[in-house]
Amino acid sequence: MYGVGMVMEPEMGEAVSAGPDRMHEAMEPWAASGGYFNFSDRPCDTDAIFPPEVCARLVEVKRKYDPGGRIFGNHAVSLDSAA
Q: Could you tell me the residue range of the domain that residue 54 belongs to?
C-alpha cells in the first residue's frame, strides 16, 4: 500500500499529512506483520519491520561503526532499547 498527497499551499499540510494515517488505520485489519519502508518518508520503528535477529545485527553494526549517531536516516536504529 502506498499513499501520497501534494501540498499546494501551507494550509493543506496538516490535511495531506493526516491522509496516509487514515488510510493506514482503514487497512489495518488486513495488515501483515513486518513492513516495507523504502517509500516511507516518516520515521518508523525498525523493530516492528525487521525480525529480531536482523535488529540485533543492525544494533551490533551501529555500535561498532557509529556509536556517536552521526549516520542517520528516516528509519534510525536505536541503541536505547538494545541490550
A: 46-83
- Other CB atoms within a 10 A radius of the CB of residue 55 amount to 19
Q: What is the per-residue pLDDT across 8-55, written as a single tens digit (0 to 9) for each?
A: 888 888 888 888 889 889 998 998 776 677 767 777 777 777 788 988
Based on the structure, what is the number of domains in the chain?
1
Cell numbers standing for residue 40: 516511507
43: left (phi over 0), alpha (psi -120 to 50) or beta: beta
Which residues contact residue 64 at a Cβ distance below 8 angstroms, ignoring those fewer than 6 apart? none
C-alpha cell, 60: 551490533
Rounded to whole angstroms, how far apart are CA atoms 10 and 5? 13
Cell of 71: 549516520
